[in-house]
Design goal:
The protein is built from three helices and six strands.
Length: about 290
Amino acid sequence: MAVAIVTTVVALALPSRTAFAFCRTTTCAVKNPPASCTRDPQTGCWQEGIPLYWPQQCISYAVNTAGSPRLGLDYAAAAALVDGAFAHWPTVTCADGGSPSVAVMGRTGLTCDRVEYNPTGPNANAILFRDDQWTHDPAAYALTTVAFNTRTGQILDADMEIQTPTLTAGDIDFVVTHESGHFLGLDHSPDPSAIMYFQYGGGAVVPQLSDDDIEAICTAYPTARTTPACDFEPPKGYATDCGGDVIAACAIAPEPLSAEVTSSPAGSSAGWLDGAAIGVLGLSLGVRRRRR
């Protein structure tokens, strides 16, 4: 098994298509993809590679206990906003009348404020509000880092960072809904009506999944998919602090992973929503503001 962090940028607007234009992130989304990995010139979708997905049905995430003082959000308010944003995806009705075979739940007590993946021990899928320091592209609204297995496409871990100085509390629902699509393995869609479209115009837009978004999540997680018994605990345990320490257990810290950050097009004043991938692969896709 190999681990990596990678970033890819979508810098130009893509032409829209009719229904079901969605794209999925694949194992081609690495820093230096092989020559055989190409994107469709019309849709921007990867044409090769294994699509990313969580193998288990039940997945947890954890909002850092600091919340976002800048946005006036204590932990409870921040967690409620994030819960509402994530809830858009597993509650849709698929074409077969069922629901996607994925469920999400928030965990409590996260004090770690770092993006990290510990392949040898417990982890947390962190949601971090960055009120003060932002080390990524300054034009980015948010960045989601996803760890996945390059051989299977199975997602192992995901951490989301939100740059609050560029946002209002009213933007969080839309931004986290979009980023949670990356969290679940979805790429940007060329459909302008989709939550996963690469542009967002701000203004506290109430997110509503389009038919394209619904088809995307139902394709990634079919109703009849066979999964292990539901368990919201990460495979090797849940850790609230950095380094993967848990009570009555210990974890060996892995070697540090390198990271690369996306950049927006030169001269662009647009804000970006990014999705990145780490740990057995990584990816980050730029998203510009949607104009209303």
